[in-house]
Amino acid sequence: xxxxxxxxxxxxxxxxxxxxxxxxxxxxxxxxxxxxxxxxxxxxxxxxxxxxxxxxxxxxxxxxxxxxxxxxxxxxxxxxxxxxxxxxxxxxxxxxxxxxxxxxxxxxxxxxxxxxxxxxxxxxxxxx
Length: 128
Prior knowledge:
- The protein has helices at about 5-15, 20-25, 70-75, 90-95, 105-110, 110-115, 120-125; strands at about 30-35, 40-45, 50-55, 65-70, 95-100.
- The chain is α+β, with helices and mostly antiparallel strands.
- It has a single domain (about 5-70, about 95-120), classed as 2-Layer Sandwich (Nonspecific Lipid-transfer Protein, Chain A), CATH 3.30.1050.10.
- The protein has a five-stranded mixed sheet with strand order 3-2-1-4-5.
- The two termini are about 15 Å apart.
């Protein structure tokens, strides 16, 4: 799985989704996505992803983190994910994910963040 490529696809797809940019217009934070011990930092500025950086980095501050394993994330990004893999909170409930950090920041921007993370599903639907 090419995680960086997927995050770059998310970045490009986000720029082509004005409704998501409108939802995220107040979101300017760095988010840590940890996949099986590998760290990726998504830096947002007013809803735009301005950088995708591979970690680990102790110098990069982040607001909240989503931690999961590669298999769970692959299932999450399928065009029609199975139950428990359809949502970030589903991953947590199934014991395949964990959310750390400033939960209030996540909840305030929940719809935006959840929809941004599901953008690779559209790519899967086109390929199918």
